[in-house]
Write a structure and sequence with these properties.
The protein has six helices and 23 strands. The protein is α+β, with helices and mostly antiparallel strands and about 500 residues long. Strands 5-4-3-2-1-12 form a six-stranded mixed β-sheet. A six-stranded mixed β-sheet has the order 6-7-8-9-10-11, covered by helices on one side. α2 runs parallel beside α3. InterPro entries: Biotinidase-like_euk, Biotinidase/VNN, C-N_Hydrolase, C-N_Hydrolase_sf, Vanin_C.
Length: about 500
């Protein structure tokens, strides 16, 4: 046998062995954490006081990590801001930051904590992962010095980043991600000069990671899934719920379905700021989730996921989102259209005046078609079909196309679009579609009490969002939430100091 043939056989056997070790499924965990917050201050606290607060939060996270590992979880995601909170100025957050190296350095902080200077937080997170043989995902702050040779260097001589880190089951740092799309008020942080597409391989699939507000933009979120072909997205977030379309459980589960990828979403828990809603989501729907505005308790979620969801028989088919809607004429010419505001966006509405029927409402290039039948038409509840086709400009600038079946808070049509958490009307059937110009559409069904409907609806290959059977609970909204990334305005530079 020639040496080259022997080498080839060795490579083939090695690949076969790796394939045998790879898992078809894995156990995932997320922890929704009620963060212990610092006292608001404009002045920096001492490093020891900062570490004391972070240790209090890490004590709680360590308990959740141990429990998840005992229940067989391979990986756990903890929330954005989960270790120190969010009450900071640029100056006051500095004692909480550490220098986080690029993972190429091959570093296990648990066994070599001083290699890159003081890193007590990274050391402890690394030991949590190593001691429990579990991948640990956490959100902390990174600091990087700079000087006048860098024209973008902030006046205080350092960059500060909102940063996700991942430690593998041996405690090694395997991923570091700097948040690119900062939310309003995150003035304590800089954004990286270029978006980072961070991925890493595991025996149970290829993972990508980004943070909170990133999910609404093309980079890095869509790039990781569409171009980098990750199997699972790790998603630490501090998500403030906004009804009717942007509650955490509603949008994150819809994003997983629309992108045909697993999402592990860990939210912070703070009811005074409308922060709750974590879940483990697959392309076919939520595997488990939690939404709790009644208590201030944290919550651990664990579920099994397909390691390679695109290859799973349960994975939904690819969708042509406008195929059906473009093939039909307008269902009706309604002379009673009116406008209403949802999250400062001006929608065009038409009311569902009959117990069942077919309706169309249009705005600009988007026409939304609805076929429906209510289980019972109530006189004290009003539902509308709505359309929005335009640029959203409140907490960011991004282009939306939205078709929605929506319950109004009262029979007064001027209230349509305002937040509403309860309903009494069930639907025997609904079919919602739209003439979308984008291929990125996220299907949402939200029930009364802000509850998801896993397994009760599906999206057909021609773009229709339909229910499987009579809805088990009253409906708040049925929505196709489209993002037209190509129409987003050019990104403007954010303040660097």
């Amino acid at each position: 046998m020639l040496p080259s043939q022997a080498l080839l056989l060795a490579v083939v056997f090695a690949l076969a062995a790796l394939q045998a070790l790879a898992s078809d499924t894995f156990m995932a965990a997320v922890y929704e954490h009620a963060v212990i917050l610092p006292h608001p201050t404009q002045e920096p606290v001492s490093p020891s006081d900062a570490l004391a607060l972070m240790d209090k939060n890490m004590d709680v996270l360590e308990g959740a990590i141990k429990e998840a590992a005992q229940q067989g979880a391979h990986i756990i995601v903890t929330p954005e801001d989960g270790i120190y909170g969010w009450r900071f100025t640029r100056e006051s957050i500095y004692p909480y930051l550490e220098d986080i190296p690029d993972p190429v350095v091959n570093w296990i902080p648990c066994t070599d904590p001083s290699r890159f200077g003081p890193a007590p937080v990274q050391e402890r997170l690394s030991c949590m992962a190593r001691n429990n043989s579990i991948y640990v995902v956490a959100n902390i702050g990174d600091k990087k010095p700079c000087d006048s040779s860098d024209p973008s260097c902030p006046r205080d001589g350092r960059y500060q980043y909102n940063t996700d880190v991942v430690f593998d089951a041996q405690g090694k740092l395997v991923a570091r991600y700097h948040k690119y799309n900062l939310f309003l008020g995150e003035n304590q942080f800089n954004y990286p000069k270029e978006p980072e597409a961070v991925t890493f391989e595991t025996p149970f699939g290829k993972f990508g990671i980004f943070t909170c507000f990133d999910i609404l933009f093309y980079e890095p979120a869509v790039v990781l899934v569409s171009k980098m072909q990750v199997d699972t997205v790790l998603f630490p977030t501090a998500w403030m719920n906004v009804l009717p379309f942007l509650t955490a459980i509603e949008f994150h589960s819809a994003w997983a379905m629309g992108m045909r990828v697993n999402v592990l979403a860990a939210n912070t828990h703070n009811t005074s700021m409308e922060m709750t809603g974590s879940g483990i989501y697959a392309p076919a729907g939520a595997r488990t989730y939690s939404y709790n505005m009644k208590t201030e308790d944290g919550h651990l979620l664990i579920a099994e996921l397909d390691a390679h969801p695109r290859l799973s028989p349960a994975s939904p088919p690819a969708v042509s989102w406008n195929s059906y809607a473009l093939s039909v004429e307008r269902f009706s010419q309604n002379d009673h259209e009116f406008t209403g505001i949802i999250f400062e966006d001006l929608f065009t509405f038409t009311a569902l005046t009959e117990p069942g029927g077919n309706l169309t409402v249009c705005q600009k290039d988007l026409c939304c078609h609805l076929s429906y039948k209510m289980a019972e038409k109530r006189d004290d509840e009003v539902y509308v079909l709505g359309a929005f086709d335009g640029l959203h400009v409140i907490e960011g600038q991004y282009y939306l196309q939205i078709c929605t079946l929506l319950k109004c808070p009262s029979t007064n049509l001027s209230t349509c679009g305002q937040p509403m958490e309860t309903a009494q009307t069930k639907f025997e059937m609904f079919s919602l579609s739209g003439t979308f110009g984008t291929s990125y559409v996220f299907p949402e069904v939200l029930y009364s009490g802000v509850q998801l409907a896993p397994g009760e609806f599906k999206v057909l290959a021609d773009g229709r969002l339909i229910n499987q059977n009579t809805t088990s609970k009253p409906v708040l909204t049925v929505t196709l939430y489209g993002r037209w990334y190509e129409k987003d305005p050019p990104r403007t530079d954010q303040a660097s100091a």
